[in-house]
């Protein structure tokens, strides 16, 4: 059984000018100890999906439907009290902004210790000792001193390490990382990705990594879900996705990212563009959500929404024309 | 380059005072840009890369004279503009325009696109009649591939990518020779980023613009630049033509930067250099080479003596300069002697 199973997840928001279908029927699963990446551009619903798993969406205006099964138990049916026992304990989250997601008036030690005292009933002293251990684990030097410091005394990279320490303090089974390195510089990003890879082996938590950076996906993920306009359009093991993308949106995304070293290999000098814009999530789109921007779209695409089909082993895509084996027709 | 460069920068410095204490006196200085020199030829793209806080945006703003310089010379097409009084400088400002990072805050929400674009045309007295102004507006919209009738709309009616096109059109309105793009594509989504990068390249080819492309995104930089200057803590540590910089980096910082960028190719084997620690504060930069606190190759000399930028041998091309003591050592003791780029980037 998968650790996390998401079935037909729908997260809609009521707004003054209609219903915003931020996530519209997304299903996927995460196995224990696995790293799954969810990629897509802003507004595709990837962050809302993550927030929905922990039920961090304010209801109303939000409304979550479908099923989110964690260890076989549907989180959408859990009471608020039960959810509080899960958050930060069995499932924890790292947010993008290390600046704003730490409390500026509490020491780093208090913030790491909070989850431990709450979930494991540790005493203040034991929690601080464990906080020092956690800071050591995430590679912060002089952990004994740092544990008594406030977030403003730390650099951006250090703050993100503290966030990771908080998230891992209770040995969660699932870690949701929402753009964990986007706000960081490249050399610091490399440190944090390295740390996450290393910790994954040591702690053994499954990771759901949410990002728009295909480079980060290629480096850390095992399986990838591609989202577009609130829908899952493709899912595949990481090698299959990068080597033979089936959905035209994924193909477009991969073509629009320049590869480092292009000047050495003398590859094409023009980036592929995906013309047009993401459609509004407030209208119901009868056909394929990508049809308005797709170079291969036909009448069938604008009329009938394609179902997710298995195109190769473990490789599903929602496209009428994506071939079962090999590249796109047309 | 045989002809005089369009823009020449000599030993540019910008220090920001920090006020503190009871009487608000200057207690320290931020050495944001601390003596850098470079030039840009007509029609050339020079990229300025580095991590946050290295001073790359300060360079852009200093060139535009958005604040007074601490020291140094800025020469635009043979005329010194760094100490020029505001009134004399004004007509020259037309020749250097800027595109900012955030397309949401860089357009006035209370001005129609028409007024945003007409403002520089009027300010610099470029149009003779209202018919001429209209023609110029239409031409600008064509250049940035937006529909002509969109000039009557407001900024909030556009998406991020379209707004960035308006920002580019505004920069082009004054018919500049040089455009400074300060992280102009960083805030955009992947697919939109590609559209804007292509547009900038087309415009450069069409209009023969020179560009100073300030960015932290090395893959985009490599894609569109002619030459690259790498900054670290207020100093330029390396300048080279594109192929030389990416193929044979000659400064340890550049080497680490290249190896740190995640590549969109799963499972590749590449040489990884993970730098320890954080960038030191520009208020109190390290003595000697500013990079020595994080450099994997640092030796005694680096801690005491600051290396100067000077030409280094490079089989891939001419015009490669770097500031590193390693190049005084025999090749056998110099880990940066060869062309390691391919191993760092894992390309064939």
Automatic annotation (TrEMBL), chain A:
It comes from the Bacteria. Keywords: ATP-binding, Cell membrane, Membrane, Nucleotide-binding, Transport. It is a peripheral membrane protein. SMART domains: AAA. It holds the Pfam family oligo_HPY. GO terms for molecular function: ATP binding. Residues 4-254 form the ABC transporter domain. It is found in: Cell inner membrane. InterPro entries: AAA+_ATPase (IPR003593), ABC_Ni/Peptide_Import (IPR050388), ABC_transporter-like_ATP-bd (IPR003439), ABC_transporter-like_CS (IPR017871), Oligopep_ABC_C (IPR013563), P-loop_NTPase (IPR027417). Its main location: membrane. PANTHER family: DIPEPTIDE TRANSPORT ATP-BINDING PROTEIN DPPD, OLIGOPEPTIDE TRANSPORT ATP-BINDING PROTEIN APPD. NCBIfam families: oligo_HPY. Belongs to the ABC transporter superfamily. This is ABC transporter ATP-binding protein. It comes from Falsiroseomonas selenitidurans. The lineage of its organism: Bacteria, Pseudomonadati, Pseudomonadota, Alphaproteobacteria, Acetobacterales.
TrEMBL record, chain B:
One of its GO terms (molecular function) is ATP binding. Keywords: ATP-binding, Nucleotide-binding, Transport. It comes from the Bacteria. Its main location: membrane. It is found in: Cell inner membrane. InterPro entries: AAA+_ATPase, ABC_transp_ATP-bind, ABC_transporter-like_ATP-bd, ABC_transporter-like_CS, Oligopep_ABC_C, P-loop_NTPase. PROSITE patterns: ABC_TRANSPORTER_1, ABC_TRANSPORTER_2. Residues 7-258 form the ABC transporter domain. It is a peripheral membrane protein. Belongs to the ABC transporter superfamily. PANTHER family: D,D-DIPEPTIDE TRANSPORT ATP-BINDING PROTEIN DDPF-RELATED (PTHR43776:SF7), TRANSPORT ATP-BINDING PROTEIN (PTHR43776). This is ATP-binding cassette domain-containing protein. It comes from Falsiroseomonas selenitidurans.
């Amino acid at each position: 059984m998968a650790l996390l199973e998401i079935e037909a997840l729908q997260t809609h928001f009521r707004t003054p000018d209609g219903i915003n279908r931020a996530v519209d029927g997304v299903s996927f699963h995460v196995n224990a100890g696995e790293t799954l990446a969810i990629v897509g551009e802003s507004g595709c619903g990837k962050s809302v999906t993550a927030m929905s798993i922990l039920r961090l969406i304010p209801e109303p205006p939000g409304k979550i439907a479908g099923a989110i099964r964690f260890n076989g138990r549907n989180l959408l049916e859990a009471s608020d009290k039960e959810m509080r026992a899960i958050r930060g304990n069995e499932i924890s989250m790292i947010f993008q902004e290390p600046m704003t997601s730490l409390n500026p008036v509490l020491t780093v030690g208090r913030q790491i210790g909070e989850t431990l005292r709450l979930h494991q009933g540790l005493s203040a002293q034991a929690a601080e000792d464990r906080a020092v251990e956690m800071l050591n684990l995430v590679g912060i030097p002089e952990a004994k001193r740092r544990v008594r410091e406030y977030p403003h005394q730390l650099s951006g990279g250090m703050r993100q390490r503290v966030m990771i320490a908080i998230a891992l303090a209770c040995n969660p089974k699932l870690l949701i990382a929402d753009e964990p390195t986007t706000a960081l510089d490249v050399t610091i990003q490399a440190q944090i990705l390295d740390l996450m890879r290393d910790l994954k082996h040591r702690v053994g938590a499954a990771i759901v990594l949410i990002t728009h950076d295909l480079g980060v996906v290629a480096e850390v993920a095992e399986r990838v879900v591609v989202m577009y306009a609130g829908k899952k359009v493709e899912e595949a093991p990481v090698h299959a996705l990068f080597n033979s993308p089936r959905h035209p949106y994924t193909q477009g995304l991969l073509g629009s990212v320049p590869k480092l070293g292009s000047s050495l290999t003398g590859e094409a000098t023009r980036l592929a563009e995906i013309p047009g814009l993401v459609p509004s999530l407030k209208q119901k789109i009868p056909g394929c959500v990508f049809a308005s921007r797709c170079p291969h779209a036909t009448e069938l695409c604008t009329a009938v929404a394609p179902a997710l089909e298995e195109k190769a082993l473990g490789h599903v895509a929602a496209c009428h024309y994506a071939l079962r084996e090999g590249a796109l027709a047309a | 380059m045989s002809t005089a460069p369009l823009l020449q920068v000599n030993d540019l410095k910008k220090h920001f005072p920090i006020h503190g204490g009871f009487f608000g006196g200057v207690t320290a200085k931020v050495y944001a840009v601390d003596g850098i020199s470079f030039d840009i030829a007509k029609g050339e793209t020079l990229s300025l890369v580095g991590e946050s806080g290295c001073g790359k945006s300060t360079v852009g703003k200093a060139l535009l004279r958005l604040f007074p310089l601490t020291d140094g010379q800025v020469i635009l097409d043979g005329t010194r503009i760094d100490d020029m009084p505001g009134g004399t400088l004004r007509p020259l400002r037309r020749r250097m325009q800027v595109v900012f990072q955030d397309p949401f805050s860089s357009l006035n929400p209370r001005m129609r696109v028409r007024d945003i674009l007409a403002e520089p045309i009027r300010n610099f007295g470029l149009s003779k009649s209202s018919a001429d102004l209209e023609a110029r507006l239409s031409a600008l919209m064509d250049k940035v591939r937006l529909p002509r009738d969109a000039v009557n709309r407001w900024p909030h009616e556009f998406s991020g990518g379209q707004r960035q096109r308006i920002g580019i059109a505004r920069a082009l309105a004054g018919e500049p020779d040089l455009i400074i793009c300060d992280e102009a594509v960083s805030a955009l989504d992947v697919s939109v980023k590609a559209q804007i990068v292509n547009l900038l390249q087309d415009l450069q080819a069409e209009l023969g613009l020179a560009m100073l492309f300030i960015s932290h995104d090395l893959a985009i930089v490599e894609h569109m630049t002619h030459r690259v200057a790498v900054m670290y803590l207020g100093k330029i540590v390396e300048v080279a033509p594109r192929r030389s910089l990416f193929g044979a980096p000659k400064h340890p910082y550049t080497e680490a930067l290249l190896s740190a960028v995640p590549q969109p190719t799963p499972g590749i084997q590449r040489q990884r250099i993970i730098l320890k620690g954080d960038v030191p504060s520009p208020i109190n930069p390290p003595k000697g080479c500013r990079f020595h606190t994080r450099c994997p190759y640092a030796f005694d000399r680096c801690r005491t003596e600051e290396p100067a930028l000077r030409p280094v041998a490079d089989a891939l091309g001419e015009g490669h300069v770097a500031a590193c003591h390693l190049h005084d050592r025999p090749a056998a003791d110099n880990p940066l002697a060869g062309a390691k780029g391919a191993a760092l980037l894992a390309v064939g």
